[in-house]
Amino acid sequence: MRLFVALQPTDPAREALAALAEDVPGVRWIPAAQLHLTLRFIGEVSADDAEKITDALNQVRVQPFFLETAGTGGFPPRGAPGILWAGVGPGHPLLHQLRQQVDDRMLATGVPFELRPFIPHFTVGRCRDAAPVPVAHWLKRHRDFAGPTWPVRQFHLMASDLLNRDEPYRTLHTFPLGEP
């Protein structure tokens, strides 16, 4: 199974993110129900490794915090973007502490995972043969996007099934945040 660790926004934040979708030729917008912020992509693992990961993530202890949705951009940052994203406001030390604890617990399992720098964002659209000018206009229109601030009280171990277009993500386990 293909796993990742994520935050799921509250309904008001999800609605604000989904409202970024516009008629831009060649952009496939992510449905509101599928929007999430990936803390750590893990990749393909066995059922035994998934159990080890669940046990390890149960040990994460970070205080609940608030996260602000803010700004938009594209990946890669130069040239024609393949992904359009919405970000989070600056200065969220507890978000980075949560990511660090997830990584520390993952390393302790011995289960290999993909190492990438952490750029907190929500993928809101995927560009396929998108015309550069309309995409550039979308980026300009939404660069100052400011969505609602929302409470982060839990994180999730999720599975992805790329062949299931209707429900590509499912939550395997939810971990509440609490006092360290």
The portion of residues forming beta strands comes to: 35-45%
Q: Specify the CATH architecture.
A: Alpha-Beta Complex
- Order of the strands making up the biggest sheet: 2-6-5-4-7
Structural class: alpha+beta
Binned, the helix content reads: 25-40%
Q: Give the beta-strand count.
A: 9
Evaluate the radius of gyration: 17 Å
Shape: globular
- Identify the quaternary structure here: single chain
Alpha-carbon distance between the two ends: 30 Å
Number of domains: 1
The top-level CATH class is: Alpha Beta
- Main sheet: strands, sense, barrel: 5 strands, antiparallel
Return the string of H and E elements.
Answer: EHEEHEEHEHEEE
Structure write-up:
The chain has 180 residues and is an alpha+beta fold. It has one domain (2-176): Cyclic phosphodiesterase (Cyclic Phosphodiesterase, Chain: A, Alpha-Beta Complex). It contains four helices and nine strands, in the order βαββαββαβαβββ. It has helices at residues 11-18, 47-57, 93-109, 132-142; strands spanning 2-7, 27-29, 37-44, 65-75, 83-88, 121-127, 146-152, 154-160, 169-176. The protein is globular. The model has no long low-confidence stretch (mean pLDDT 93).
Helices and strands, with pairings:
Layout: E1 2-7, H1 11-18, E2 27-29, E3 37-44, H2 47-57, E4 65-75, E5 83-88, H3 93-109, E6 121-127, H4 132-142, E7 146-152, E8 154-160, E9 169-176
Antiparallel strand pairs: 1-3, 1-8, 2-6, 4-5, 4-7, 5-6, 8-9
Helix pairs in contact: 2-3
